[in-house]
Write a structure and sequence with these properties.
With 466 residues, the protein is an alpha+beta fold. Helices cover 17% and strands 33% of the residues. A hairpin with a 2-residue loop joins strand 3 and strand 4.
Length: 466
């Protein structure tokens, strides 16, 4: 469905998205009380369009892991509780034991994010154990393909070759679904995580002295990843910002003091964020001039920093804030929808929607009513099946009804989303609107009314993987 035709004016308009990537080895710890600085929520800059959060060593004891599979893990719940009130929805997540990758997007972008798929690759114990490896989320964003890989590679100074071999194996993985490009065929690929590369040759005293004097440049040439990039062709296509922050490993807990244990491990930049733009790689292969008009997508690094104030693990988190400029191939949502008239629980209500020609609708498509602070696609208040609950249809639009009994008596601010079963994603979202409180409830206990509404039985709910 990405072949919808648009005018050249729409197609040529460049859109800039702000992405904030986090990588953090959390060392089996619970979430901290506050992540305002980590997510740059106190920044004076414009709000982010997307958050991509990659964690390693999330508590993966077997009892925790099994319960996390049945329900959202504590870290996912934590980040949803922080970001959903700010207008972000958890688009997708993937978990492999201690590796967790989360993607959050602003509501407005949902109709233009399609073909979301996840994958994981085990490399620990010859591929039989998931304590090391990579987790991947890919998508089409305004028609351009973007892929995120969160890795935890083997530890220890001597395992550089193993780290490189494992990353190559992760890059070679294929998505099971047809028509999805391989990892390196995406327009943009972000690679991040606890990559575990160390600082070679220099002794611990020289390394610590260089750090104390903020002469990080003395250590760059002996950083194993920087050294490997000079020799390995596949790594040369990846770009990284300057390492102008202290090595992020290994610290005593709840401090900014490097390892004082008996092992006294040498500091290292283990936690990294790199990216690769496919068109730049193609440009490097061409002998003739590369037209700027061919550059349909570009990445700008705005900042690349560590966050020393977080001490729950022996790693400090690292963040990269990016500007992603792209020429959209998609400018219109597949479905537009809106509430009809005034909404309240005192009467049945109507939803109007229209789809673009050729939209692959299904009997299992549904329209959900969501609070504006909803956390993910299954976090609906109620829903209507687009076919079973349809009451009128013409060439321009269709109408679907929701029963008054399904509408929250307390009212508030809500929005509507159209979920496509064939595309497994939200393909249309309404503007926020108000539902009026039920006037017959004046004087009743609001808490009791909300509890009664929350406990209403519903035997055939739509279930989607998110």
């Amino acid at each position: 469905m990405e072949s919808v035709q648009h005018s050249s004016t729409q197609r040529d308009a460049v859109r800039e998205l702000r992405l904030h990537l986090v990588t953090w080895n959390v060392g089996t710890a619970s979430p901290p009380p506050d992540v305002t600085s980590l997510l740059q929520l106190d920044s004076l800059s414009p709000a982010m369009d997307m958050y991509v959060i990659g964690l390693q060593e999330v508590n993966s004891k077997i009892t925790n892991f099994l319960s996390d599979l049945a329900f959202d893990d504590p870290w996912s719940i934590f980040f949803m509780s922080v970001l959903s009130p700010l207008g972000y929805i958890k688009l997708s997540s993937v978990r492999m034991q201690g590796l967790l990758l989360l993607v959050f997007v602003k509501h407005a972008h949902l109709p233009f994010v399609r073909d979301v798929h996840t994958h994981y690759t085990r490399t620990g114990l010859y591929g039989y154990w998931g304590n090391k490896g990579g987790v991947t989320i890919r998508m089409s964003l305004y028609g351009r393909t973007v892929c995120f890989i969160n890795c935890h590679l083997p530890a220890h100074m001597e395992n550089t070759e193993q780290r490189l071999d494992d990353f190559e194996k992760i890059l070679e993985m294929q998505f099971e679904e047809e028509n999805i490009p391989s990892t390196l065929d995406h327009d943009v690929l972000f690679w991040f995580g606890d990559l575990n590369f160390r600082i070679a040759d220099y002794g611990i005293h020289f390394v610590r002295e260089s750090i104390n004097n903020k002469r990080y440049n003395l250590l760059w040439e002996k950083d194993q990843l920087n050294m490997a990039k000079k020799k390995e062709a596949f790594l040369q296509e990846f770009i990284e910002g300057p390492l102008q922050f202290k090595p992020t490993y290994k610290f005593d807990l709840h401090s900014d003091v490097y390892d004082t244990s008996e092992k006294k491990r040498k500091p290292a930049w283990t936690d990294r964020i790199l990216w690769r733009v496919k068109s730049l790689c193609q440009r490097a292969l061409k002998e003739d001039d590369f037209s700027e008009e061919e550059q349909t997508i570009s990445v700008t690094l705005n900042n690349y920093i560590s966050h020393m104030s977080y001490g729950i693990s022996d790693h400090k988190p690292v963040t990269g804030t990016f500007g992603l400029e792209l020429k959209p191939l998609l400018s219109d949502p597949l479905v537009t929808l809106s509430p009809e008239g005034e909404w309240s629980a005192e009467h049945d209500v109507l939803i109007s929607y229209s789809a673009v020609p050729g939209f692959p609708s299904s009997a299992w498509d549904w329209i959900g009513l969501f609070k504006v602070t909803f956390r993910h696609a299954n976090d609906y208040v109620t829903y209507a099946w687009v076919e079973d609950d349809e009451i009128s249809s013409n060439e321009d639009s269709k109408q679907v009804y929701m029963s008054a009994a399904e509408i929250p008596d307390m009212g508030g601010e809500f929005l509507l989303c159209y979920y496509s079963n064939n595309l497994q994603s939200i393909v249309g979202i309404s503007q926020p609107f108000q539902i009026q409180p039920n006037r017959t409830l004046i004087g009743k206990d609001p808490a009791q009314e909300e509890n009664a509404w929350m406990q209403k039985p519903d035997n055939l709910e739509p279930h989607n993987e998110f």
